[in-house]
Amino acid sequence: MVRNQFDLSAAAWRKSSYSNSSGGDCVEVADDAPGLVPVRDSKRPHGPVLVLPAAAWTPFIQGLKNS
């Protein structure tokens, strides 16, 4: 397994429009990582981050919608 470290300390995170204000499923993404889409749980801002290649983002979201 290859592990890469990305400095996301200055990332501008935005909450998904599908997230709700009652603390439900809250997903945030950062837009300022060229070629990558960092994703995290907004309830755990210091927790793990899933970093997807930008080309994998659309199939990832489509897979979520289909499940």
Encode the helix/strand succession as letters: EEEEH
Q: Helicity range of the residues?
A: 10-25%
**Structural class by helix and strand composition:** alpha+beta
**CA-CA gap between termini:** 27 Å
Estimated radius of gyration: 12 Å
Net shape: globular
Main beta sheet strand tally, sense and closure:
4 strands, antiparallel
Please summarize what this structure is.
19% of the residues lie in helices and 25% in strands.
Give a written overview of the molecule.
By secondary structure, the chain is α+β, with helices and mostly antiparallel strands. 19% of the residues lie in helices and 25% in strands. The protein contains one helix and four strands. The chain has one helix at residues 54-66; strands at 13-15, 27-30, 36-41, 50-53. Strands 1-2-3-4 form a four-stranded antiparallel sheet. A hairpin with a 5-residue loop joins strand 2 (27-30) and strand 3 (36-41). The protein is globular.
Secondary structure layout:
Layout: E1 13-15, E2 27-30, E3 36-41, E4 50-53, H1 54-66
